Amino acid sequence: MTPNQRRSRPSPVSKRFVGTLLMFLIVVFVIVQTSTLIPEVYAQNTKPAPIEFTNVTAAAGIKFVHFKGNKGISINREEFGPGVCVADFDGDGWQDIYFVNGRDLYNRGISVSNALYHNNGDGTFTDVTEKAGVPGTGYGLGCVWGDFNNDAFPDLFVTQYGRNVLYRNNGNGTFTDVKDEAGVAGTESGAFHSGATFFDYDQDGWLDLYVGSYVALGDKRYCQLAEVLSSCAPSEYRGSPDALYHNNHDGTFTNVTAAAKIYQPEGKNLSVAAADYDNDGWPDLFVANDGLNAYLYHNERNGTFKEIGLVSGMAVTAQGRVMAAMCISLGDYDNDGELDLYISDFQRSSDHLWHNEGKGLFDEVSEEAGITRLTRDVLSFGGGFFDYDNDGWLDLFIANGHVYPEVEQAAPGTHYKQINSLFHNEGNGRFTEVGKLSGTGFGTPYVGRGVAFADFDNDGFTDVVVANNGDSPLLLHNSGNGNHFLNFRLTGTKSNRDAMGARIHVVTGTTSQIREIAGGGSYLSQSDLRANFGLGKAKRAEIVEISWPSGQRQVFRNVEADKFYLIDEGKDQLQLQQFARKAAGSK
Question: Which of 72, 164, 355, 466 is the most exposed place for a label (fewest CB within 10 A)?
Fold first, then answer.
């Protein structure tokens, strides 16, 4: 066959080859272009989310309404709270809720109290405040739970304007106010107390207590906000000292603030959180200040701390600005084995995300992660990291709401009540806003403050409770999806009973995740101390490793998914958590 004959009669195979090649090149081109555009598209639009959050507050029987206590124009104190904290106070396996309330400080004869709601295990709650004896003793702001006497029943600490209160759990559904005998009323640290957290800073097996304070209000009540009168910014007031209480193992605490080198006489603390950010086995302390540098107290492992916020890179923003700094949350959002940091901020300032670079350093990546643009037009308060869809990547929920009711007059277009935010972790270092696609729970604006995360119906998917200022709370039920999970409750023996400071490492074929058991965080609030891991499509974990504060390590292999496990320190057998009742439709 001559060359001309070959050209004049191309074979069918050649035609098919050329056609296939062209199609292949077109597909490659489309894929390349699409992959290039996806991050930008997600940065501008929301990504569909199969999970739906439903407001079940009324259906759950929760009738609590926060009373801010203002007389006319509210002052700073009356816009500050409230917080909310969860714990299984009676040991029946179901997470209960404590709501903090304000008070009438103007002698008008208005009587209100805090509220403890017992989880009935069937999707409803019962107000047991009076029976339990935990109404609060003053104008309430925040709360945390912690088993300070290691008797297996969580105790309750409430920060207040005035004297704080510590309720010891009697183990029979009632509590006793022991603030005076315990020595934690806080009169030495001003009147305006804020965020608090239990943590075992010296690793002696007993929970210590850090209590932050805000400002000294003085006589100045109102300031100008543009052309209208409103409450005053914290810059108008002096700061207040903090307090670190060491647990004496006998039901009492000693104030060791100065001895521990953690004394800050002019701090303006909002949220506080304890976490081992540098993986040295000792809990460090993060303190968010309003209009001042954020503090990072590194645990020196000798009973003292060293403040290294600026050196570590998280004291101010990447632009060198101080923050309003309401929320603190720590979590490993990129699954690299290091705890990253989220701090919420004022409207138009945007929130902030720091990536933990290791070796004690943080790098702010808010812009790269998509957080800057998504949070610019809201005033963010409590919330933080949680894996709402159990895909193995930590997402973010943030409650929003302004602090000046008069802002709508002073700055038209800015709203006092605001919609909460839900950011989905795309697994590539970026987050996308999905709240508008995630159910009716994101349809109503509130003045959001404290946030706590807990699996209230024990179905393996984390629910959310939001404490709103001057309004009813918001209990958001997570609808779940087909992804698998693991849930762990740790009990310390040599370590503190709550296992605060313990680290859990879970490995599946596709992910490696960590959680650290910690109190406090969010904003004036505390979440479920159980650790919930999303496993995606994995039906078991290859490795579950527990690193206890005592230094002990335990490893479990081939752990079956979709179960609630109990792990006792030193026992090499996994147990199942026991639930006194089973909620309808739960697993």
Answer: 72
